[in-house]
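Quick question: what would this complex look like in 3D?
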Amino acid sequence: MTTLPTTPPQTIGPFFHYALPLPDGGHVVAPDDPDAVRIFGTVRDGAGEPIPDAMIELWQANRAGRYAHPEDDRVEPPLEEGFTGFGRVETADGGYYEIVTVKPGRVPGIDGEPQAPHIEVALHARGVLRHLVTRVYFPDEAEANAADPALNAIGDAERSRLLVARPDGDGLRFDINIQGESETPFFAV
Amino acid sequence: MATTHSAKPAYRPDDTEVDVDYAPYRSTDLRAPKRPLTILPHTLSELTGPVYGDEWPTELEADLTRQHDGEPLGERIKLGGRVRDGDGRPVRNTLIEIWQANASGRYIHAGDQHPAPLDPNFTGAGRCLTDDDGRYEFTTIKPGAYPWLNHANAWRPAHVHFSLFGTAFATRLVTQMYFPADPLFDQDPIFNSVRDPAARERLICRFDLERTEPEWALGYDFDIVLRGRESTPMEE
């Protein structure tokens, strides 16, 4: 079978705001959901300056660990009505973003062993020619995090910890630094 | 307890050579990671992605010339094509989002300070779903070129921004589509951040007399290829 070469990526640029934001993109679940958790943070560039024109997309399983997608063809755990697992927000002045969601359940990794609960993140911005991919992990999952293949693939425990959100007020803080001493570990997917 | 799950085929690496730290595009200087990316084998998390069903856009805005009381100024065009994966299979029922400047090269975005006129009859944002054959079509106007401050006398070639999800988180694509034979290509660092000239060609639509609607709109084709998978199970 012929293999077709892919269409290359280009930056999202600075002017996407009137086209891409979704009406309720910051709510993966309703804020009054009993399991709702607020994840928020600041996106910064290599000079430590906030990036006010980025877009963040989240993709995750439901609280039981099931993706709302045909590729997740397991019967258990069950899907839930109305849960898409997708969130999309733009950063505001100050590089700030926030999203209301639930901690996903554990989903199987390559070898079928459960991965630590995590949320996939895509970061788009002017100056970013191919969107950046990272993951959010959870601070109350120390044991699962320690065994997680993606975190361990980073090869540096101190850097891996940068992907674990920190409790902050009533929510979880997940800052993204594109460069610098605390450069967020990014993945090639 | 999750049921046992056998490994599923990954998407093939996206080998398009993009210089993400491309000095001529100044914004990359502080916005490209300095450390190497960690390779992440595809798990269910990367093999799944947003699905557009009934709960997703119900009002699809594929005609950007009919979103206001009057018609926008500019050259009316039909812009369409096929979305396929790297194995040539149509990517069905996937959302395509586009956005663009108006015919004068001005975005409606508040951050665009280019002193060219806004068009009260043009927003410049559209959405549609691909059909069962992976096909899509927008009606819009040809966007204008516009200046930016990247370097002395810098102008962006006319372009339309495209956003697609495809079938998985791993196939997400945000890109820009250009028009044939634009004299601004050589000096545009965003276009040239794709290092392979043949790959750059894949960002350029082509004029299509077949798609052209007589007495109404010129037609352009832009086919999009998302990543294909490693050996996939037989479909039929």
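Answer marked as accepted. The mean pLDDT of chain A is 96.
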